[in-house]
Amino acid sequence: MSMEYYEEDVPHVLAVDDNIIDRKLIERLLKTSSCRVTVAENAIRALEYLGLKENQQQSQFNGKGAKVNMIITDYCMPGMTGYELLQKIKESSMLKDVPVVIMSSENIPNRINECLEKGAERFILKPLKLADVKMLRCQLTKC
Predict the structure, then answer these.
(1) What are the CB-based long-range contacts (under 8 Å, 24+) for 17-25?
(2) Ramachandran class of 122: left when φ > 0, alpha when ψ lies in -120 to 50, beta otherwise
């Protein structure tokens, strides 16, 4: 089996968090669960990586973005929240089917419901645990 083929088989997850410690933890847990990981320190960088232009009213896909199988984002970040990132992704015809998981250290039911209603796949409370990541990995591979 060639390495390229193997890479295609490995789920690619974009992890977005402004906190470097949380970002490193998420990255380590995802890699432990056999995922390919790209990290972004904020929602703007994530949109750039995905090929979306943040400055337009309707997010425009420029066709240059990377393919990801899932996006995991922190809720509370400076500049643009995880909720706003979720909205941009769900507005994009090219990305709307990519599952988005929102994480937060705050257990606020209204916030959780708002995210789920807007199309978030799940809302996970921090700190992220290996069991959470294994569940998400399983979901990606339909096991």
Answers:
(1) 17/41, 17/73, 17/74, 17/77, 17/103, 18/42, 18/74, 18/77, 18/78, 19/74, 22/74, 22/103, 22/126, 22/127, 22/128, 25/127, 25/128
(2) beta
pTM for the structure as a whole: 0.88
Q: pLDDT, tens digit, for every residue of 49-99?
A: 999 875 544 445 555 677 899 999 999 999 999 999 999 999 999 899 999
128, 109 contact by CB (below 8 A): no
User: Residue 120 — pLDDT band, cuts 50, 70, 90?
Assistant: very high
Please tell me the predicted confidence (pLDDT) of residue 115: 98
64's CB contacts (< 8 A; 6+ apart) are 51
Query: Which single residue is written with the structure tokens 């096991």?
Result: 143
